[in-house]
Amino acid sequence: MNMDTLLKSTARSLYLSARVLPRKIRKTFYCGYLLCRAADTVADTNIIDGQKRLNLIKNFPKIIKDQDKTLISEFKTAIPKETDINAREKLLLDNIDLYLEEYNALNYEQKKIILDVARAVCGAMEWDLTFFPSQDSDILKAVFDDNATINYCDQMGGEPGIFWAKLLLEGKQDDEFANNAKNIGRALQITNILRDMPNDIAIGRCYLPLTDLTNANLMPQDLLDKKTYKKLKPVVLKWISWGVENLKSAPAFFVKIPKIKFGARAAVAWPVLWSLDTLYFISNAKNLLDKTQRVKISKKIIYLTILATPLYCLSNNLFNLIIKHKIAKLKKLF
Which residues contact 40 (CB under 8 A, 6 or more apart)? Predict the structure, then answer.
C-alpha cells in the first residue's frame, strides 16, 4: 500500500486534482490530507465513545509532531478489529504508520504547514464533539449565528485552502494569494455542508445558523420533516450566495499560478468548477432534506471538465469567463 493508492481509494474526486499537482509538492499534500482524513474518520464514528473520540482528536496534532507510541497505539486500536466499519475508513486508520513515516521524510517547512492545517481542522472536529449532542441522542442542534457557520467553514475549508496556497508558494510569502485560497476553501466547505445536510441532520447536527432558521419560522427539530424544505430554501440560497461570493476569488488566485505549472492550475481549477456545478444542482434540488435526493455531479460533468482543461488552463481570460458564466447561470435560480 502506498499514498497514491490510499488517496485514490478514499477520495476519488480529490485524487484527480491531487494527482496532477507538481511532483515535489504532491507528497506533502497526500500526507497532510490523509492525516486529516484519518482524524476525521475517528471524530465521525459513533463506534467510539464520545469522550474517547474527543481525547483522540485533542491529541492528534501531538501524535503527528511527537509521535508518542502510546498515543499512536490508542489511535490505531480505537476501533476494535472485529467491528464492521466502512472499508475506506478501515484503510485510513490501518495506515497511520505510513502517513507518519512519510511525514518524517519531509523538510521542516513542509512539516510545519501540515501541523498548522491539522491543528485547525482538529480544532473544528473538537468543537463538533463538544457543541453538538451525541449521535445517539434525539436532539437536533443548530449553530448559533452566521459567525459560527463562517468560523467553521474557515477552519474546515479555509485553513486547508491556505495549506494548498503554501504548497504552491513553496516558501514564498503572498498574503493576497493565501487569502484567495482561504476564500475558495471556505466556499468548498459550505458546498459540502449544503450537500451533506440530511446526513448531518440525521446525527443531530445543523451547520446552518439558528438565527436563519428562526427568521424562516423554523426550529432545528423541524428539519427532520422534509416537508419543511420550502421554508428552509431561502436560507439555503443565502448560503449558496455566500459560497459563490467566495468563489469569485478563484480567477485572481488562478492567474498567479504560472501557465508553465499546468498541473497546479488544473488542480485548482477542477474543484472550483465542480463546486459551482454542485451549487447549481443544490439550488435546483427539489428537496435537500430528502436523503434519497442527495446532490452529486455526474461523471459526465467531471470528464468534460477534465477534457476541456487545456483550453482554460492556458487562458486566464477563458477561465474567468467560465466562472462568470457558471455564476450567472446559478444566480438565475435565486
Answer: 121, 125
Residue type, 133: P
Other Cβ atoms closer than 10 A to 15? 17
Q: Quick one: three-class SS letters along 46-95? A: CCCCHHHHHHHHHHHHHHHHHCCHHHHHHHHCCCCCCCCCCHHHHHHHHC
Question: For residue 260, how far is the Cα from the chain centroid?
Answer: 28
DSSP lists the bridge partners of residue 206 as 142
Number of domains in the chain: 2
Grid coordinates standing for 304?
468534460
- Residue 75 sits in which domain range? 1-131
The dihedral over CA atoms of 237, 242, 244, 245, expressed in degrees to the nearest 10, equals 140
Q: Identify whether residues 95 and 149 lie together within a single domain.
A: no
In DSSP terms, 205 is beta-bridged to: 141
CA atoms within 13 A on the CB side of 24: 7
Q: Which of 111, 131, 151 is the last residue of a domain?
A: 131
Q: Supply the CATH number for residue 329's domain.
A: 1.10.600.10
Picking from 131, 157, 174, the residue at the C-terminal end of a domain is: 131
Query: Per residue of the chain (334 residues), what is the pLDDT tens digit?
Result: 788 787 887 777 777 788 888 888 888 999 999 999 999 988 888 777 878 889 999 999 999 999 988 888 888 877 766 666 666 777 788 888 899 999 999 999 999 999 999 999 999 999 999 999 887 778 899 999 999 999 999 999 999 999 999 999 988 999 999 999 999 999 999 999 999 999 999 999 999 999 999 999 999 999 999 999 999 999 999 999 999 999 999 999 999 999 999 999 999 999 999 999 999 999 999 999 998 888 889 999 999 999 999 999 999 999 999 999 999 999 887 7
Residue type for 254, please? F
* 140 plus 122 within the same structural domain: no
Reported for 225-229, long-range contacts at CB under 8 A and 24+ positions apart, including other chains, are 225/289, 226/287, 226/289, 226/290, 228/289, 229/287, 229/288, 229/289, 229/290
